[in-house]
Amino acid sequence: MTDTSASTTLYERLGAGDGIAAVVDSLYRHIIGDETLAPFFEGTDMVEQKRHMALFLAVATGGPNGYRGRDIDAAHAGRGITDADFDRVIGHAATALAEAGVDDETIQTVAGALLPLRDQVVADASAA
Ligand code: HEM
């Protein structure tokens, strides 16, 4: 976790599969503890959800490509997710990373990798 050389992938800086699994666990603890966000996951199998999120984050951070879930657009279509909901999830992700001991620069890099997904996650205002 201390090697921040340019050749180290973000995936490795996060502690690879085990590190990401721990962050994802903490992320969903924060999400389910947030009364604004919890209702979105009422019918969700959280074990599968965590597994898919961890595999998705592995690919997104330069790790192995084991993600077999839906694409991000399809997974979130029709759920009515707002910009504010998206910002709350990113906030919880930053908290979960900080709690795992990830440094600020790396947290910013992870956030920078997730922010471009906003348009695929947030409901199209014209369709709402
Ligand atoms: C960068 C932000 C996000 C990423 C990377 C992300 C990633 C994912 C992934 C990988 C899945 C699994 C897809 C599958 O199983 O095929 C998923 C499903 C889901 N996400 Fe997200 N998500 C993000 C933001 C959000 C936000 C902001 C919300 C709502 C507030 C949300 C709510 C959901 C729900 C409800 C599901 C489906 C659960 C189910 O199948 O029951 N996501 N997301």
UniProtKB/TrEMBL annotation:
This is Group 1 truncated hemoglobin. Keywords: Heme, Iron, Metal-binding, Oxygen transport, Transport. One of its GO terms (molecular function) is oxygen carrier activity. Heme binds at H52, H76. SUPFAM superfamilies: Globin-like. Binds 1 heme group per subunit. It comes from Microbacterium immunditiarum. Gene3D superfamilies: Globins. Pfam families: Bac_globin. Its cofactor is heme. Belongs to the truncated hemoglobin family. Group I subfamily.
